[in-house]
């Protein structure tokens, strides 16, 4: 009897152990490869105590959200006093076309003044900051020198430094944070509204990291006191799908990832999809008829591109809407092959690169790239491998500098 009981007990124990192991294995299978990325803005417990009882200014646009609600609405509902909002290019609502000046306004819903930082007033003035105790920066960036949010960041930091205001940065992932590539701008002749920093075309930093870079590398007359609420569970290699389109013409995940490569074509005879609902995923020009079967017609689209290159003309070229993003991530590079291909295919090469500054040998393309070297290399027929080789000294130097300011692996 005792022997029978022992056998029964061991059997039950064995079965229970097997079931327990199975449950643990099943649970382990449900554990994701990495924890969910949590933006700085979504970690309210880390910064609400810093805002309570203070008059808050907010640098924000449509990408500034807490959960699914706008940061303005969310913070107001949490009892935070927002006295002013500052908006970047495309405006606070994110519905102004590229390059369009944005006027000041008053938010119809809350009555809060909205000050435009894209137009005559690029930097908050002393008067605009006078009634603010703390300024909060919460804008999604995409990691390119020619994406103007980092310009706005510098101007805001400069104003805060000059007026002894602290800047709280609610950090967000860089969807192109895995790539540091392109020529480094080193010559002030190529500074413009679409490039004021001595970085490669893609810098591989978040806004929080870039703010530390601006402070540390002497961009500001007086350093800005900053505090960064870091993104949780994030590193630069992670894929990140933006919950909100960062600007009108970056309206898909494909466009965001192709932007570093396709925005180079602004400043050439090639239309990069502006004037369609597929911007930064297609390339073409009327002069390429007969060389490519794919075609489309750019038109004026209010709030996106009213006057796109080759407006109302049929363009022929490349359809990259189904391009394999995994291969782009694997290479960690801007795609140069498309630029070389379309230049070689273009029949009127003398007019491929559009003029830039009058009385200077600087094209609109040069201002975007940050140097005239790439244009001259393309014209001379230099191979992609040799072009990339010419970038390496500047890239290696920049990466060493960048490393000092990284907040994430």
From TrEMBL:
InterPro entries linked to this entry: NamZ, NamZ_C, NamZ_N
Ranges of residues in domain Peptidoglycan beta-N-acetylmuramidase NamZ N-terminal: 56-253
Segments forming domain Peptidoglycan beta-N-acetylmuramidase NamZ C-terminal: 257-408
Protein name, per record: DUF1343 domain-containing protein
Organism field: Dyadobacter endophyticus
